[in-house]
Specification:
The chain contains twelve helices and 17 strands. With 317 residues, it is α+β, with helices and mostly antiparallel strands. The chain binds zinc ion (ZN). Zinc ion binds next to α7.
Length: 317
């Protein structure tokens, strides 16, 4: 019965309730990855004036050695629990779809077809929300790493979102588009630099720059969370006590809430990344704001409670 539910998105949508019930049990048992829920029936909620849907681009396998640097490997593995698989761990990749009035906004475009085979699934997830890529009016980037922007151009080199304008922090754009960047980075980063530069070149005529401290859309403010990349940004959405879209400033809540001082191997500037991670956790715990994270266990929404100089993750969905 379950296999038949995998045969097409149509079935998944029609049988959503039944599917979610069965899938939830298999996910709890570790048989299915959590993002199967996202592909079948993306999680949606209201935040201020926006209808927010947590879409899924699939999952990414990363070496455990990159996560929780500073802690003992066995402690990191224990914190990640079922997410750990041998020397690796599987992380979600969850862009956000925001709708308000005539705005249909996608926050990050995912990995596209050239990063990891388990990722680049955003089209399927958008379809499950009833949203065609051509309906997206604005794409806003948190930063320009492959898993956040390589889904921008299709295999034909054209924008997957033909009717969208693109919005990126000025610092991030200037960092990645510098013509001498590849020569300044380690050799093994060359592929990433070239890949990102290709994606950004394809949208250069449709891009608008923004700065931290500004309101990018009504009720959505830009927060400076540099460190992961030089121009990495997070966002705070109005509504209730607020929602902080952390992106990769807090890569995983199970590891970095209890140990905000541990490093993440993909952070470009560890000291700045750690300071900004703590800033977000402080803001959230003091202001009782919700947090959402791009790579957190789906749908990745929770609260931070301050405890003994660190934080406890309290999932809110
Ligand atoms: Zn990422």
């Amino acid at each position: 019965m379950l296999m038949s539910a995998f045969n097409g998105t149509q079935n998944l949508v029609l049988d959503r309730r039944k599917f979610l019930g069965v899938a939830a049990g298999l996910i709890a048992a570790g048989v299915l990855p959590k993002n199967v829920l996202a592909l079948a029936g993306p999680y949606a909620f209201k935040q201020g004036a926006y209808d927010v849907t947590v879409v899924s681009d699939g999952t990414l396998l990363l070496p455990l050695s990159l996560v929780g640097q500073g802690g003992k490997p066995e402690d990191v593995k224990a914190l990640l629990g079922a997410m750990a698989q041998g020397d690796n761990a599987q992380f979600e990749a969850s862009p956000l779809l925001l709708k308000s009035g005539s705005d249909v906004v996608l926050m990050d475009t995912g990995s596209g077809g050239n990063f990891q085979p388990t990722a680049g699934k955003i089209a399927e997830s958008l379809k499950a929300t009833g949203t065609d890529a051509s309906a997206i009016t604005k794409v806003i980037f948190t930063h320009a790493h492959p898993d956040h922007c390589w889904g921008t151009l299709g295999a034909d080199g054209k924008s997957v979102f033909p009717n969208a304008s693109f919005h990126t922090a000025e610092t991030e754009w200037n960092f990645w588009t510098a013509s001498d960047l590849a020569s300044k980075m380690p050799k093994e980063m060359e592929g990433m630099v070239k890949g990102t530069q290709g994606q950004l070149a394809g949208i250069k005529d449709k891009v608008t720059m923004f700065k931290p401290g500004t309101e990018i859309l009504p009720g959505i403010n830009v927060l400076d969370t540099a460190g992961h990349t030089p121009g990495h940004v997070s966002f705070e959405m109005a509504g209730g006590d607020g929602l902080i879209i952390t992106a990769d400033a807090i890569m995983n809540p199970l590891v970095y809430f209890p140990h905000p001082d541990w490093k993440f191997g993909f952070d470009a500037d560890h000291a700045t990344a750690i300071a900004n991670r703590k800033k977000l956790l402080d803001m959230a715990s003091a202001g009782k704001k919700k947090l959402i994270g791009f790579h957190w266990p789906y749908p990745g929404i929770g609260m931070a409670e301050a405890k003994d100089g660190a934080y406890v993750y309290v999932p809110a969905a």
